[in-house]
């Protein structure tokens, strides 16, 4: 490939108690993350000619023109722009779109950015989505959004396969153990399965500690050609495969409540493009909006068969020292979750592939799978990355 697209920079902002250190607007936190990623790549903001932004969380009006608003703020005049928003998986899709744009010559340096100050602004509510368009058939009856839809999927999975609440709790406990190794994580105190089981019920069968955090946060990724990366001495992470899909928005239209069809579709495509098997994957970073999201994603991606997810994660298999390193920064359950989390999965995978994860570093990482989930188990984006 004459213009191979590679990841050369990542950046995020520090948090304290889930809030952006130093405060700031959604544009300011995005600008800080973008600057950190550009510096990490060894490039300059003036080099950016591709801008990919999923949205300005909680910002109506100008936030509807996300790349235009952020481009103006950063002083970037892109010749390629993408504001695809399919929820938390948008950033995995952005990596794919940026790779295609770079390979076709539509841009040379692509900047992917996301930021939110939802915790500082107290803008997140369980009401969430107005009862209009397809939501008019569900929200009027009081389903809490988005947790209610995930709870329905969890209960259906339990009904079909015998999955137990304690098995979901295994995921929260293992993820917290990774967070304990990450100084940037919001929640680092020890956690037990009993702690999860005794936590406040939110939407049966999901409890408080089955649910992701509500925090601020911002992250950015820089991509360019391998040739440009070599010219600037940038460290390259290769994009080996990707896929994206979505199946529904309202939970009542989900094709199968016990199967994550979008992840099946996107994962199959990513593995086919990468030309590798599951045993070539060293670490997995997958969206953990809720514990059930992780379990269903592992099944959908083919790491275990449908219905076997509960057994697969049992015995702290995904915790530090376990056989299946998963969500190594603490995930959305314990690290941060600023509305849409998928960009942080990619940032962590890059740091693991570079050997920059300090106490949580997994030895010998060469290939990583990243999977984002958006909406209410609605969309999926899968990316396979490698350092060779």
Give a concise summary.
The protein is an alpha+beta fold and 388 residues long.
Under CATH, the homologous superfamily reads: Thiolase/Chalcone synthase
Which oligomerization state do the chains in this entry correspond to?
single chain
Strand order of the largest sheet: 5-4-6-9-1-10-13-12-11
Protein structure class: alpha+beta
Question: Which CATH architecture is right?
Answer: 3-Layer(aba) Sandwich
Which radius of gyration do the C-alpha atoms yield? 19 Å
Strand count, sense and closure of the main sheet? Answer: 9 strands, mixed
SSE pattern, N- to C-terminal: EEEHEHEHEHHHHEEEHEHEHHHHEE
Report, as a whole number of angstroms, the end-to-end distance: 15 Å
- Beta-strand proportion: 15-25%
- Number of continuous helical runs: 13
How helical, in percent, are the residues? Answer: 25-40%
- List segments where confidence is low: pLDDT < 50 over at least 5 consecutive residues: none
Question: How many domains?
Answer: 1
CATH topology: Peroxisomal Thiolase, Chain A, domain 1
User: What best-fitting shape do the alpha-carbon axes yield?
Assistant: globular
């Amino acid at each position: 490939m004459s213009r191979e697209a590679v990841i050369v920079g990542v950046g995020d902002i520090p948090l304290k108690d889930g809030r952006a250190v130093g405060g700031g607007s959604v544009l300011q936190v995005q600008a800080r993350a973008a600057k950190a990623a550009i510096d990490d790549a060894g490039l300059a903001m003036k080099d950016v000619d591709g801008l990919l932004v999923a949205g300005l969380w909680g910002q109506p009006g100008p936030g509807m023109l996300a790349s235009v608003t952020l481009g103006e703020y950063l002083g970037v005049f892109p010749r390629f722009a993408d504001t695809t928003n399919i929820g938390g998986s948008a950033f995995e899709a952005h990596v794919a779109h940026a790779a295609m744009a770079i390979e076709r010559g539509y841009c040379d340096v692509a900047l992917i950015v996301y930021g939110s100050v939802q915790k500082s602004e107290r803008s997140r509510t369980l009401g969430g989505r107005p009862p209009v368009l397809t939501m008019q058939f569900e929200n009027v009856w009081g389903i809490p959004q988005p947790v209610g839809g995930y709870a329905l999927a969890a209960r259906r999975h339990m009904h079909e396969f015998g999955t137990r609440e304690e098995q979901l709790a295994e995921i929260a406990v293992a993820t917290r153990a990774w967070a304990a190794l990450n100084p940037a994580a919001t929640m680092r105190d020890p956690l037990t399965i009993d702690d999860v089981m005794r936590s406040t019920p939110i939407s049966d069968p999901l409890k408080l500690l089955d649910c992701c955090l509500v925090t601020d946060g911002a992250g950015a990724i820089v991509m360019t050609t391998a040739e440009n990366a070599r010219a600037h001495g940038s460290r390259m992470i290769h994009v080996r495969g990707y896929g994206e899909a979505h199946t529904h928005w309202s939970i009542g239209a989900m094709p199968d409540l016990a199967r994550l069809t979008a992840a099946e579709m996107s994962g199959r495509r990513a593995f086919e493009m990468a030309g590798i098997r599951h045993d070539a994957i060293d670490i997995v970073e997958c969206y953990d909006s809720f514990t059930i999201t992780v379990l269903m994603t592992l099944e959908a991606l083919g790491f275990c068969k449908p219905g076997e997810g509960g057994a697969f994660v049992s015995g702290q298999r995904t915790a530090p020292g376990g056989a299946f390193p998963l969500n190594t920064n603490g995930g959305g359950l314990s690290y941060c979750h600023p509305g849409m989390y998928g960009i942080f999965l990619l940032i962590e995978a890059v740091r693991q592939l570079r050997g920059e994860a300090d106490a949580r570093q997994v030895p010998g990482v060469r290939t990583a799978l990243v999977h984002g989930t958006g909406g209410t188990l609605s969309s999926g984006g899968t990316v396979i990355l490698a350092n060779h």
